[in-house]
Specification:
By secondary structure, the protein is of the alpha+beta class. The chain is built from 3 helices and 11 strands, in the order ββαβββββαββββα.
Length: 221
Amino acid sequence: MTLSAPTVASEPASVPVEWLTSPEPVPYEEALAAMDARAGSIADKTAPECVWLLEHPPLYTAGTSANEAELLTPARFPVFRTGRGGRYTYHGPGQRVAYAMLDLTARGRDVRAYVAALEDWLIATLARLGVAGERSSEGIGIFVGGAKIASIGVRVRRWVTLHGVSLNVAPDLEHFSGIVPCGLHETPITSLAALGAETDMARVDAALRASFAEIFGGSPR
Protein backbone atom coordinates (compact mmCIF):
# COMPACT_ATOMS: atom_id res chain seq x y z
CA MET A 1 0.00 0.00 0.00
CA THR A 2 1.14 3.53 -0.77
CA LEU A 3 -0.35 6.86 0.21
CA SER A 4 -1.32 7.47 -3.39
CA ALA A 5 -3.17 4.16 -3.69
CA PRO A 6 -6.80 4.22 -4.93
CA THR A 7 -8.04 3.25 -1.45
CA VAL A 8 -6.92 6.64 -0.14
CA ALA A 9 -8.92 9.70 -1.16
CA SER A 10 -7.03 12.99 -1.46
CA GLU A 11 -8.28 16.57 -1.30
CA PRO A 12 -7.83 19.12 -4.11
CA ALA A 13 -4.40 20.74 -4.18
CA SER A 14 -3.84 24.33 -3.01
CA VAL A 15 -0.74 24.37 -0.74
CA PRO A 16 2.27 22.08 -0.12
CA VAL A 17 0.82 20.07 2.79
CA GLU A 18 -1.26 17.27 1.30
CA TRP A 19 -4.22 15.81 3.23
CA LEU A 20 -5.28 12.21 2.66
CA THR A 21 -8.23 10.33 4.12
CA SER A 22 -8.70 6.55 4.13
CA PRO A 23 -12.38 5.55 4.06
CA GLU A 24 -11.85 2.11 5.62
CA PRO A 25 -9.73 0.94 8.59
CA VAL A 26 -6.11 0.46 7.52
CA PRO A 27 -4.09 -2.51 8.84
CA TYR A 28 -1.32 -1.19 11.05
CA GLU A 29 1.60 -2.80 9.22
CA GLU A 30 0.34 -1.43 5.90
CA ALA A 31 0.02 2.03 7.42
CA LEU A 32 3.58 1.91 8.79
CA ALA A 33 4.98 0.86 5.42
CA ALA A 34 3.11 3.59 3.56
CA MET A 35 4.06 6.23 6.14
CA ASP A 36 7.74 5.21 6.07
CA ALA A 37 7.80 5.38 2.29
CA ARG A 38 6.15 8.78 2.18
CA ALA A 39 8.45 10.18 4.88
CA GLY A 40 11.44 9.00 2.86
CA SER A 41 10.11 10.76 -0.22
CA ILE A 42 9.58 13.94 1.78
CA ALA A 43 13.17 13.78 3.04
CA ASP A 44 14.34 13.28 -0.56
CA LYS A 45 12.26 16.31 -1.64
CA THR A 46 10.27 14.19 -4.09
CA ALA A 47 6.89 14.47 -2.32
CA PRO A 48 5.12 17.19 -0.33
CA GLU A 49 4.46 17.08 3.39
CA CYS A 50 1.40 15.03 4.28
CA VAL A 51 -1.26 14.56 6.95
CA TRP A 52 -3.06 11.22 6.71
CA LEU A 53 -6.41 10.71 8.45
CA LEU A 54 -7.40 7.11 9.10
CA GLU A 55 -8.71 4.50 11.51
CA HIS A 56 -7.20 1.14 12.40
CA PRO A 57 -8.75 -2.23 13.25
CA PRO A 58 -8.62 -2.89 17.04
CA LEU A 59 -4.98 -3.23 18.14
CA TYR A 60 -2.43 -2.20 20.73
CA THR A 61 0.88 -0.51 19.98
CA ALA A 62 3.97 -0.35 22.16
CA GLY A 63 6.16 2.73 22.02
CA THR A 64 9.85 2.91 22.83
CA SER A 65 9.15 3.34 26.58
CA ALA A 66 6.56 0.54 26.85
CA ASN A 67 6.54 -1.48 30.08
CA GLU A 68 5.54 -5.12 29.55
CA ALA A 69 3.62 -5.11 32.84
CA GLU A 70 1.25 -2.54 31.36
CA LEU A 71 0.02 -4.94 28.67
CA LEU A 72 -2.74 -6.51 30.76
CA THR A 73 -4.39 -8.81 28.19
CA PRO A 74 -1.75 -9.58 25.55
CA ALA A 75 -3.95 -12.05 23.65
CA ARG A 76 -6.91 -9.72 23.24
CA PHE A 77 -5.81 -7.75 20.18
CA PRO A 78 -2.71 -7.79 17.97
CA VAL A 79 0.22 -5.96 19.58
CA PHE A 80 2.68 -4.02 17.41
CA ARG A 81 6.10 -2.74 18.45
CA THR A 82 6.68 0.67 16.97
CA GLY A 83 9.42 3.27 16.87
CA ARG A 84 7.29 6.13 18.15
CA GLY A 85 7.83 7.56 21.60
CA GLY A 86 5.56 6.67 24.51
CA ARG A 87 4.15 3.49 26.03
CA TYR A 88 1.12 1.32 25.23
CA THR A 89 -1.86 2.75 23.45
CA TYR A 90 -4.98 1.47 21.71
CA HIS A 91 -6.18 2.15 18.19
CA GLY A 92 -9.51 1.07 16.76
CA PRO A 93 -12.67 2.05 14.90
CA GLY A 94 -14.17 5.31 16.09
CA GLN A 95 -10.78 6.81 16.85
CA ARG A 96 -9.39 9.35 14.41
CA VAL A 97 -5.68 8.84 13.85
CA ALA A 98 -3.78 11.64 12.13
CA TYR A 99 -0.32 10.71 10.89
CA ALA A 100 1.68 13.88 10.25
CA MET A 101 4.66 13.63 7.93
CA LEU A 102 6.22 17.08 8.14
CA ASP A 103 9.68 18.38 7.26
CA LEU A 104 11.22 19.77 10.44
CA THR A 105 14.19 21.06 8.48
CA ALA A 106 11.79 23.65 7.09
CA ARG A 107 10.04 24.07 10.46
CA GLY A 108 12.88 24.73 12.85
CA ARG A 109 14.30 21.30 13.81
CA ASP A 110 12.83 21.62 17.32
CA VAL A 111 11.14 18.38 18.35
CA ARG A 112 9.84 19.73 21.66
CA ALA A 113 8.27 22.69 19.90
CA TYR A 114 6.73 20.28 17.39
CA VAL A 115 5.14 18.14 20.13
CA ALA A 116 3.81 21.32 21.78
CA ALA A 117 2.33 22.34 18.42
CA LEU A 118 0.60 18.95 18.14
CA GLU A 119 -0.93 19.55 21.57
CA ASP A 120 -2.04 23.02 20.47
CA TRP A 121 -3.55 21.46 17.34
CA LEU A 122 -5.64 19.02 19.38
CA ILE A 123 -6.75 21.69 21.85
CA ALA A 124 -7.81 23.98 18.99
CA THR A 125 -9.63 21.10 17.28
CA LEU A 126 -11.54 20.23 20.44
CA ALA A 127 -12.46 23.89 20.93
CA ARG A 128 -14.03 23.92 17.46
CA LEU A 129 -16.09 20.92 18.59
CA GLY A 130 -17.22 22.62 21.80
CA VAL A 131 -14.86 20.76 24.14
CA ALA A 132 -12.29 22.36 26.44
CA GLY A 133 -9.13 20.27 26.17
CA GLU A 134 -6.03 20.91 28.22
CA ARG A 135 -2.53 19.70 28.92
CA SER A 136 -1.75 17.80 32.10
CA SER A 137 1.34 17.36 34.23
CA GLU A 138 0.60 13.62 34.13
CA GLY A 139 1.99 13.27 30.64
CA ILE A 140 1.88 14.18 26.97
CA GLY A 141 -1.58 14.24 25.43
CA ILE A 142 -4.81 16.14 25.87
CA PHE A 143 -7.26 15.77 28.75
CA VAL A 144 -10.82 16.84 29.52
CA GLY A 145 -11.85 17.04 33.16
CA GLY A 146 -8.97 14.81 34.18
CA ALA A 147 -9.72 12.12 31.58
CA LYS A 148 -7.53 11.56 28.54
CA ILE A 149 -9.15 12.11 25.17
CA ALA A 150 -6.18 12.30 22.80
CA SER A 151 -2.68 10.84 22.58
CA ILE A 152 0.52 11.88 20.86
CA GLY A 153 3.35 9.66 19.65
CA VAL A 154 6.18 10.94 17.50
CA ARG A 155 9.22 9.63 15.68
CA VAL A 156 11.61 11.76 13.64
CA ARG A 157 13.82 10.34 10.89
CA ARG A 158 16.01 12.50 8.65
CA TRP A 159 14.15 15.43 10.25
CA VAL A 160 10.82 14.23 8.86
CA THR A 161 8.13 13.41 11.42
CA LEU A 162 6.25 10.12 11.57
CA HIS A 163 3.21 8.95 13.55
CA GLY A 164 1.24 11.80 15.12
CA VAL A 165 -1.97 12.04 17.14
CA SER A 166 -5.07 10.01 17.93
CA LEU A 167 -8.37 11.53 19.03
CA ASN A 168 -11.09 9.44 20.65
CA VAL A 169 -14.25 10.27 18.72
CA ALA A 170 -16.50 7.28 19.42
CA PRO A 171 -14.34 4.19 20.04
CA ASP A 172 -15.28 1.34 22.36
CA LEU A 173 -13.65 2.68 25.52
CA GLU A 174 -13.72 -0.75 27.14
CA HIS A 175 -11.00 -1.78 24.69
CA PHE A 176 -8.55 0.43 26.60
CA SER A 177 -8.88 -1.88 29.61
CA GLY A 178 -6.44 -4.36 28.10
CA ILE A 179 -3.54 -1.97 28.69
CA VAL A 180 -2.47 0.79 31.05
CA PRO A 181 -2.92 3.56 28.46
CA CYS A 182 0.25 5.64 28.17
CA GLY A 183 1.28 4.35 31.59
CA LEU A 184 -1.45 6.35 33.35
CA HIS A 185 -2.75 3.92 35.96
CA GLU A 186 -5.35 6.17 37.58
CA THR A 187 -6.41 8.27 34.60
CA PRO A 188 -9.72 7.44 32.89
CA ILE A 189 -10.12 7.52 29.12
CA THR A 190 -12.89 9.53 27.51
CA SER A 191 -14.17 10.36 24.03
CA LEU A 192 -16.26 12.93 22.22
CA ALA A 193 -19.16 10.47 22.33
CA ALA A 194 -18.84 10.00 26.10
CA LEU A 195 -18.89 13.79 26.50
CA GLY A 196 -21.98 14.16 24.34
CA ALA A 197 -20.01 16.13 21.76
CA GLU A 198 -19.71 15.90 17.97
CA THR A 199 -19.05 12.40 16.64
CA ASP A 200 -19.53 12.87 12.90
CA MET A 201 -16.10 11.97 11.55
CA ALA A 202 -16.36 14.33 8.60
CA ARG A 203 -16.96 17.25 10.97
CA VAL A 204 -14.11 16.13 13.20
CA ASP A 205 -11.86 15.99 10.15
CA ALA A 206 -12.95 19.49 9.14
CA ALA A 207 -12.04 20.75 12.62
CA LEU A 208 -8.64 19.05 12.38
CA ARG A 209 -7.96 20.65 9.01
CA ALA A 210 -8.98 24.14 10.10
CA SER A 211 -7.03 23.92 13.35
CA PHE A 212 -3.94 22.61 11.58
CA ALA A 213 -3.94 25.72 9.42
CA GLU A 214 -4.29 27.85 12.55
CA ILE A 215 -1.38 26.20 14.38
CA PHE A 216 1.02 25.21 11.59
CA GLY A 217 0.18 27.96 9.13
CA GLY A 218 -1.47 28.04 5.73
CA SER A 219 -4.51 26.12 4.58
CA PRO A 220 -4.42 22.33 4.31
CA ARG A 221 -4.24 20.81 0.87
